[in-house]
Specification:
minor pseudopilin epsh fold, 3 strands, globular, binds manganese (III) ion
Length: 250
C-alpha cells in the first residue's frame, strides 16, 4: 500500500535523522538508509526524483543572474523537467525506490528520448542551483580540489579558461562540465541539450563535479546574445564550498 510505505518511510527518516544527530555526521545516515532500502548510492550527493526547494531566494544571485530569470528558470523550465520525468518514470516502469537517478542516467540508452531529456534536465538543474551562491563568496577553490585542478590543468586560471571555452563553444543548447573520472582525474567537457557525463551515451563520462547551463533560457533576459558575458559574470556566483564537498564525496 502506497500510504503505508510512505508512513514507514517517513518514520524511518525520522529515526535515521535522530541516529544522525547522535553520531553528529550526515554520511552514516545515508549509509544506514542505503542499507535499509537496498539502495545503491553513488555518492552522498544523490539527487531525488522530485524538484527540491531552491536553496536561496530568486533575487539572491543578483546582479549576476536577475530575479526574473531565476524565477522562470526554476519554476517553469526546471519544474517542467521534474514533472515530465515523473511521467516518463511511471510510463517506463522505473522503480524509483530501487533505482537511483544516477543509476538511471548511467543506463539512459535503454529509455525513451523523453526520459533522456527530462532525467538529464532534472538532474542538471538540481545540481546547478546547489553549485551557485550569492556573489561575494570564495572566488576560487581551496584544499584538495585546488590541488587536483592544478595537477590536471596546470593552474586554476587555465582550468577557468578551458571551462569557459567549453561553455562558449557549445553550439546551441547544452552544458559545460567539470568531471572526475574513475581514476580520479579531472576533465572539462560539454554536452548538448540536457545530456550529462553520467549518461552511457556521453562522449566524456565521469562524475559531474560542477556544471554550467548555457541554454539561452539561463541568461537571455539579461545578457541576450552575449553568452561570453554571462559566463564571465557567472564565476562570481560559484559555490566553491559545495563543489569542494562534492569533489571529495565523488
Ligand atoms: Mn536551464
Amino acid at each position: 500500500m502506497p500510504t503505508n510505505n510512505k508512513q514507514s518511510r517517513r518514520s524511518f527518516i525520522k529515526t535515521g535523522a535522530k541516529a544522525g544527530l547522535a553520531a553528529s555526521v550526515a554520511i552514516p545516515v545515508l549509509s544506514s538508509f542505503a542499507k535499509a532500502t537496498n539502495h545503491h548510492f553513488v555518492s552522498p550527493f544523490e539527487t531525488p526524483y522530485t524538484q527540491q526547494p531552491l536553496p536561496y531566494d530568486y533575487k539572491a544571485l543578483e546582479p549576476v543572474i536577475d530575479t526574473m530569470t531565476m524565477e522562470i528558470h526554476y519554476s517553469k523550465h526546471a519544474a517542467a523537467y521534474a514533472k515530465n520525468l515523473a511521467e516518463a518514470v511511471a510510463a517506463e516502469k522505473v522503480d524509483t525506490q530501487k533505482t537511483s537517478l544516477e543509476n538511471l542516467l548511467a543506463g539512459i540508452s535503454k529509455y525513451t528520448p523523453k526520459m533522456r531529456n527530462n532525467a538529464g534536465g532534472h538532474y542538471n538543474h538540481e545540481l546547478f542551483w546547489k553549485i551557485m551562491t550569492a556573489p561575494g563568496a570564495a572566488a576560487a577553490p581551496t584544499g584538495s580540489l585546488l590541488k587536483a585542478i592544478e595537477k590536471d590543468f596546470n593552474s586554476f586560471d587555465a582550468f577557468k579558461t578551458q571551462f569557459t571555452d567549453a561553455g562558449k563553444s557549445r553550439f546551441g543548447s547544452g552544458w559545460a562540465w567539470l568531471v572526475k573520472n574513475k581514476d580520479g582525474k579531472l576533465n572539462v567537457t560539454s554536452t548538448p541539450n540536457q545530456d550529462n557525463p553520467l549518461m552511457d551515451i556521453a562522449e566524456v563520462k565521469g562524475f559531474p563535479v560542477m556544471g554550467l547551463d548555457v541554454w539561452e533560457h539561463a541568461y537571455y533576459l539579461k545578457y541576450q546574445n552575449k553568452r561570453p558575458d554571462y559566463i564571465a559574470a557567472w564565476w562570481n556566483v560559484v559555490n566553491w564550498d559545495f563543489i569542494q564537498k562534492r569533489f571529495e564525496g565523488a
